[in-house]
Amino acid sequence: MKFFEFLALHHYCEGLMIFTALIAFIFSLRHYSWHRGFRIIPYYIGLFLFQATVADFTYFVSPRGDRFAISLELISTIALTIFECCVFNLLILHYIVGAGRRLAIKLNIVLFFMAEIFLYLRAFPRVPMESMCLLEPIAIVLPGVIYFYELFTIVNPKALKDRPSFWVVSGIMYLSVGSLTAMVCQQYLGRFGDAAYTLGNLFYSILFVLLMRAYKCSPDEWVVGDRYEKNIT
Known about the structure:
- The structure is a single chain.
- The chain is mainly α.
- It has one domain (11-229): Rhopdopsin 7-helix transmembrane proteins (Up-down Bundle), CATH 1.20.1070.
- The chain has helices spanning 2-8, 13-30, 41-61, 67-93, 99-123, 129-153, 164-186, 193-215; strands spanning 222-224, 227-229.
- A two-stranded antiparallel ribbon has the order 1-2.
């Protein structure tokens, strides 16, 4: 009975998110050697599923807030937030051509780390989870904007639907912009705040679907220095 109560959480979107994550995880393992630039994705999805498992463990085993369970969920959430931001920045960096824009993304990752450490030390021993989670989508939007700027300024004869980078970055931007909007608006929605959290689950589902779509593209687009080359591996 409690399992169905769990599925009903957030309008069944929690279960949908976990289901799409599992399918994407299996999909990424099957195509692990197909896309060289995507080899970090299975590790990201694996950590995502681990964090979801920890959160579900807290819900089922310790609904009243066991201290150990809450601490474990907190640590896993922080680890996922930091790792997710780094993975998304690196995935986008893989397809950026301009040397100055590549440097901007690298600096963006460094600034994100410094800001996360500052927020943590400033609020210690409390953990400012809302601020730390809000900072992540902000740190991902800039690399996404840089990618789409290059998308429309650099000639590439390959169709968008056949470019794995387009599907990956689109999924990342859907998640980042949607999550940022939902988190900013959540505190003003009152009793409808749960609907904003539900949107976050839907954006994750969209991300995993688009990642699977990217795996179906030919792996012939990757960046070396400041030029495109063919991936012949």
